[in-house]
Amino acid sequence: MFGILRTLWLTFLHMGHRRVTVGYPEHKPPLPPRYRGRIILSRDPDGMERCVACNLCAVACPVDCISLQKAEQDGRWYPDYFRINFSRCIFCGMCEEACPTYAIQLIPDFEMSEYLRPNLVYEKEDLLISGTGKYPDYSFFRVAGVKIPGKDKGEAEREAPPVDIHTLLP
Amino acid sequence: MTAPMPVIIGVTLAVLLGLATFLTWFERRLLGLWQDRYGPNRVGPGGILQAVADGIKILFKQDWIPPFADRGVFVLAPAIGMMTVLLSFGVVPVTAFWSIAGNLNVGLLFVLAMMGMGVYGVVLAGWASNSKYALLGGMRAAAQMISYEVFMGLSVLGVVMQTGSFTMRDIVLAQSGLWFIVPQVLGCVVFTLAGVAETHRLPFDLPEGENELGAGFHTEYSGMKFGMFFLAEYAGVVLISALLVTLYLGGWQGPLLPPALWFGLKTGALVCLFILLRAALPRPRYDQLMALGWKILLPLSLLNIAATGAILLLHAPG
Amino acid sequence: MATILIDGRACPARTDENLLQACLEAGADLPYFCWHPDLGSVGACRQCAIKQFSGPDDKTGRIVMACMTQVTDGAILSIDEPQAREFRAGVVEWLMTNHPHDCPVCPEGGECHLQDMTVMTGHDSRRYRFTKRTHRNQDLGPFINHEMNRCIGCYRCVRFYRDYAGGEDLAAFAAHNDLYFGRHEDGALESAFSGNLVEVCPTGVFTDKPFSAVYSRKWDMRGAPSVCAHCAVGCNTIVNARQGTVRRVINRYHEAVNRYFLCDRGRYGHGFTSAPTRLRAPILRQDGIPVPISMATALERFAAMAKDGPIVGIGSTRASLESNFALRCLTGPDRFSTGLTQLEHDLTMQVPALLRATPARNPSLHDMESADAVLVLGEDVCVTAPRLSLALRQTLRRAAFPAADAAKVPHWMDAAVRMLGADAPSPLMVLTPAATDLDPIAATIHRAAPDNLARLGFAIAHRVDNSAPDAPDLSETEIQLADALATALRTAHRPLIVAGLQYANAALIHAAANIATALHATGADAALSLVVPDCNSMGMALTGGIPLDAVRAMARAGHIGTLVVVENDLTRRLDAATLDELLAAVPHLVVIDHIATRLAERADLLLPAASFAESGGTLVNTEGRAQRFLPALTPTMPIQESWRWTQQLTQAATHADAPEWTNLDQIVATIAQEIPALSRIIDAAPDAEYRLDGRRIRSEPARISGRTAVRADISVHDRPLPQSPDTPLSPSMEGAYSPDMPGALMPFYHAPGWNSVQSLNRFQQEIGGPMRGGDAGTRLLDDGIPPETPEWHHDIPTPFTTAPDDLLLLPEPRLFGTEELSALSPPIAARVTPATLRLSTLPAGLQDGGMVSLTLAGEHLTLPVRHDPALPPGIALCPPHLAARAFTTPVRVQLHGDDTP
Ligand code: SF4
Ligand code: SF4
Ligand code: SF4
Ligand code: SF4
Ligand code: FES
């Protein structure tokens, strides 16, 4: 009984406290770099598309709002189309979590409201940025074993030159 | 200096509905204040036009009746809810000269009767929606409101005994010396709690407990039919506050200021108290609510009647 | 039945299997790589290590390779024992030291046995910090991608390619850590079964190249059970589709038919479903100009045409029973043609009767594998029924079993069995006009003209059973050969005779029937298999109809108002002059097909049909097994199933008592009712009302992705996927899925922890046995009552005679290019080699490779010659349809030498 009255009193006293709400848009709140907002596709340090169309983000997405199709050129995989339906996205960041190449990243930008839902469907042109985003150094194809133009077999990180299969010497 | 009846009815109705609409905004602002945030502050000066915006929005929303619902009852239910609250106001005397039926000799009984009718609005809404959440909400409402009606009725008996009349105006006039809140403090507390439960306001809003029942009895409602429930709730808050003022806080009486203002101020303060309750207190469990009613409020109100009766007998002339 | 204890749990097991099989059958998760249910064990990978205890008191136990240890009753095993776990984790970690960081760009990812096994053993972080060995890849042709870095050295590929399928051009190179699996140089893999490497290789070394171009992860594709339409074997397949297109075809296990393997024609032949020549709208030819029209207009036009006289229908041996039957309902049985020329028609019609009347068994493919003497009489099964030839190849392995039994080596101990069987005599005897791929492993090979082969067949029958007629005037060598073959067959317990319609020679199949009958009379468990040309030739034989020649006669007599041709390119069957004559005599030609054939170009009304991937239907394979294929895609209107078109034509034309089928099951029921021989096709698969646990079986994996984005560019509104009335499968990932699904409804294989095709083990009653939910299809020809006393065929041909400049031109079907539909598939088309004329003796003055001209089917052709001294004299071979459009055998041709006209 006393507890209830005390609660009422304390709540009443909050009348004089400062408000914690930030008055957006007049005041823009500072967002941490790992804030989960708008999704982008980044490029590797060489300026090539990072996404290798592995489909892991799509399968990790709990609301199934990512769809893409793999295409391939000279050993490099890339998405032929890459579509995110932001009218479904819940900005959970699972896609970024799943991405093995750091291609898909959630960035501290949330100002993407639209009056028409179709405008929330982003295609690759809308997602792809020209930089590396949060991870400046990583390049998947420098680590992977597949051959791409400019990187022959055995030239990736920690790779020995290709073996000569015509010798039986150890 | 009594105004003609149509004017009184018209003004009361307009003020009441206006007040209920205003309260939808006011409550949110006040909650914001007590919870260190702003509340609606964008539309119009201080956000006051939010209520208008909400009204427009709700009017333009699709008024959908679920195909599985019992149509007639579904439409009727919110009207009953609204109507009973408005009718109750008829017997509340704003001032000695400004009331629709403040002289009604069964005034208080009429209020209780209307409250009893009000249960139908909620129960029928839950029933007609034909969905499990709505039904559960409706059943909770039935049990809760019928129980608390008992305590409400019992709690005001002390006042009636002291006044010797059911007429609202007489009750107010009987407090010209001492407000009933002093002798009837127990009754006043019971009445307040029962009032919160009757209007199923937080913290006693179990019929619509959204974390377990969606939105309880009005889960399936939308558009203006939902709006009616919404407004009825705020009108209910005003009604309970007005009744508290009438029964325990001396009605319009007070020094210096004109009577109507006194009435308004007292009612306003009580409305704020209701909002404070909402801002501060969590919702109890359903069994706790019922236990509070039957195990504490019932004995308290009986005790109050017995004590009042005893004292009246002791002081009775002859 | 033995009982073994796995981690304290008593499990039934068979003593003829190994512990790995027993553990998997018991539902345990035991990792493995090199063991394969049909390739047996070699113990190469050391991944299947478990602990075996000698008795209840033995607490130490010893580590054994489960796949190399026989089940013994009461064996006490532990998979979970810490040492065994550690051993397996060590093996995977060591296998992974050289593994590239490729999963995201590896087409195997998501259905990779190596991924599954790595997760199963718990290896999750790399400790090895040194360099990885790398390999250069090879270009292995249009079917297979090669990425050697990913190899774990399990040897499955070469064991399948060389040991199981008899391929020569894939081998293991180098040694120890540098092991390399590939060809001696870049080039297309030659084997007809190279595509199976995709499923056999547990990693992403060998992957499906055409699929990679339209790649989608396994979890993103819808699957539907289907039946291969590219030959008469009727291999069971799963068609994977996504976003409205077929992505790939993979094997669907059927215990008795294709088991674990498909041929490349079946795996890569589906490309025609999205070929540019696909028909997508009804087309009306007005004054020679094709105009796309609506469905309603098309039907109106047909109604008008139908007023101009009787309708005659031509069905097709590549169309489903349903499509043919619906046409037969439109025209009536008397005006429904099988779409075959007289000779082909007569032969095809005979086959089921022959199989029913012969007392010998009509074997399934799996049954054939255990034959101990096989006589292939005048049919190159390696191209006409490739998967069947792979089954015949396995008889060689069975031949090693006696030696293995004597040495007490269990049959699954693959390397040892092959070693022991190295000297076992081959049970194969191949008698064909031209060399076949089975020749290198055959005990006896004989080249002769079809007539002479038939004579030899009759002679063999006579030598097995004296009451059978003998062929007169045999040469000395023929007599010797007949004696030898008869002896070989007579001493066998399970002799098998295989013949077929390749050379359109009735005497050949009659001789085969005589031999089988004679062998049966000796008390042997004899079997006779007859190979028919097309995926539904057998269904057509059971449906019946009139030959094309009868249609021509009707046309000449002016008895045809409208000719409706369903899925049959008559330009392949009738030469240009004959076809012109036929079409000239027909006022209206209506063609229903899914691709724009040459005939379609001449149709007055052309209606777009659904391909096998978009429709459901029933095909009867060469052993008379009716099998159902179900739609993987919903056809986009106005494309619809041929039978739906034909039904609508019937309704448009007659307005009264036209059939009112609303789904596949109803037309199947009508067929079963009207054609007694097909009464059991209802049992081929559960109908559309089938529910598992009250729900449809889902056609998409539970974790399909992108559902709210895949169509979002068209509309952001959700829409329920359309449910086809013809299939019990749901169109989405909603529905039931369990190991007990009927084999006929298997949409994809997946079991918890087993994402690759290896999860199939979980769906079988026992490994390599029938499906837990029952095998697909139903055999139709088992109800024959053979006569009491053998009835012999007496149509012994006279010896083949050669004329100086007159050659018998025989078809030389190609694995790729001859079959009509698969030839439209880009990867198959890339493997088609140009037509040649094969001759035993070159005309004077002509070099190998020189040009020769001849007139065939009214076409004047100039072809390069290939000298093949092994051919019998007087015979020329030419691939059908590749040189001349139409091809009918037998045909005599004259060569014009190199006189380019
Ligand atoms: S943030 Fe979450 S919901 Fe949005 S696309 Fe990524 S995985 Fe999907
Ligand atoms: S997970 Fe990353 S690399 Fe893979 S498809 Fe998504 S964005 Fe591309
Ligand atoms: S083979 Fe398997 S484990 Fe290796 S890269 Fe491919 S998917 Fe990954
Ligand atoms: S290529 Fe594949 S099947 Fe062959 S050894 Fe390597 S991993 Fe095994
Ligand atoms: S599966 Fe047993 S050693 Fe490879």
UniProtKB/TrEMBL annotation, chain A:
Enzyme class, one word?
translocase
One example of the protein's molecular function in GO is:
NADH dehydrogenase (quinone) (non-electrogenic) activity
| One GO CC term, this protein | plasma membrane
Names of the cofactor(s): [4Fe-4S] cluster
- InterPro entries for the chain: 4Fe4S_Fe-S-bd, 4Fe4S_Fe_S_CS, NADH_quinone_OxRdtase_chainI
Q: Where in the cell is it found?
A: Cell inner membrane; Cell membrane
The 4Fe-4S ferredoxin-type domain, residue ranges: 39-71, 80-109
What topology does it adopt in the membrane? Answer: Peripheral membrane protein
Residues annotated for [4Fe-4S] cluster 2 binding in this entry: 61, 89, 92, 95
**Note on how the cofactor is bound:** Binds 2 [4Fe-4S] clusters per subunit.
Q: Which keywords belong to this entry?
A: 4Fe-4S, Cell membrane, Iron, Iron-sulfur, Membrane, Metal-binding, NAD, Oxidoreductase, Quinone, Repeat, Translocase, Ubiquinone
Organism's domain of life?
Bacteria
Q: Name one GO biological process term.
A: aerobic respiration
Which reactions is this enzyme annotated as catalysing? a quinone + NADH + 5 H(+)(in) = a quinol + NAD(+) + 4 H(+)(out)
HAMAP family, from UniProt? Answer: NDH1_NuoI
**How does this chain assemble?**
NDH-1 is composed of 14 different subunits. Subunits NuoA, H, J, K, L, M, N constitute the membrane sector of the complex. NDH-1 is composed of 13 different subunits. Subunits NuoA, H, J, K, L, M, N constitute the membrane sector of the complex.
What is the designated name of this protein? Answer: NADH-quinone oxidoreductase subunit I
Q: Please name the source species.
A: Gluconacetobacter asukensis
User: What taxonomic ancestry is recorded?
Assistant: Bacteria, Pseudomonadati, Pseudomonadota, Alphaproteobacteria, Acetobacterales
Automatic annotation (TrEMBL), chain B:
Which EC number(s) are documented for this chain? 7.1.1.-
Principal subcellular localisation of the protein: membrane
Record bears the keyword Cell membrane: yes
InterPro entries under this entry? NADH_UbQ_OxRdtase_su1/FPO (IPR001694), NADH_UbQ_OxRdtase_su1_CS (IPR018086)
Which of the seven top EC classes does this enzyme belong to?
translocase
Q: What protein does this entry describe? A: NADH-quinone oxidoreductase subunit H
Family under the similarity heading:
Belongs to the complex I subunit 1 family.
Bilayer disposition of the protein: Multi-pass membrane protein
Q: Which residues cross the membrane?
A: 6-26, 73-100, 106-127, 148-166, 178-197, 226-249, 261-281, 293-316
Subunit structure, interactors included: NDH-1 is composed of 14 different subunits. Subunits NuoA, H, J, K, L, M, N constitute the membrane sector of the complex.
Q: Which reaction does it catalyse?
A: a quinone + NADH + 5 H(+)(in) = a quinol + NAD(+) + 4 H(+)(out)
A Pfam short name: NADHdh
TrEMBL record, chain C:
Question: Has keyword NAD?
Answer: yes
Q: According to its record, what are the GO cellular component terms?
A: membrane
Gene Ontology annotations of biological process type = ATP synthesis coupled electron transport
Reaction catalysed by this enzyme: a quinone + NADH + 5 H(+)(in) = a quinol + NAD(+) + 4 H(+)(out)
Q: Which Gene3D superfamilies match?
A: 3.10.20.740, 3.30.200.210, 3.40.50.740
Q: Which CDD domains match?
A: fer2
Q: Which residues form the 4Fe-4S His(Cys)3-ligated-type domain?
A: 83-122
Q: Which UniProt keywords apply?
A: 2Fe-2S, 4Fe-4S, Iron, Iron-sulfur, Metal-binding, NAD, Oxidoreductase, Quinone, Translocase
Q: Does the keyword Translocase apply?
A: yes
Which PROSITE patterns does the record cross-reference, listed alphabetically?
A: 2FE2S_FER_2, 4FE4S_HC3, 4FE4S_MOW_BIS_MGD, COMPLEX1_75K_1, COMPLEX1_75K_3
Q: Which GO terms describe its molecular function?
A: 2 iron, 2 sulfur cluster binding; 4 iron, 4 sulfur cluster binding; metal ion binding; NADH dehydrogenase (ubiquinone) activity; NADH dehydrogenase activity; quinone binding
Locate the 2Fe-2S ferredoxin-type domain: which residues? 1-83
Q: Where is the 4Fe-4S Mo/W bis-MGD-type domain?
A: 221-277
Cofactor(s) listed = [2Fe-2S] cluster; [4Fe-4S] cluster
- What NCBIfam families does this protein map onto? NuoG
Q: How does it assemble?
A: Composed of 13 different subunits. Subunits NuoCD, E, F, and G constitute the peripheral sector of the complex.
* Family classification: Belongs to the complex I 75 kDa subunit family.
Query: What's the name of the protein?
Result: NADH-quinone oxidoreductase subunit G
Q: Which organism is it from?
A: Gluconacetobacter asukensis
Its lineage reads: Bacteria, Pseudomonadati, Pseudomonadota, Alphaproteobacteria, Acetobacterales
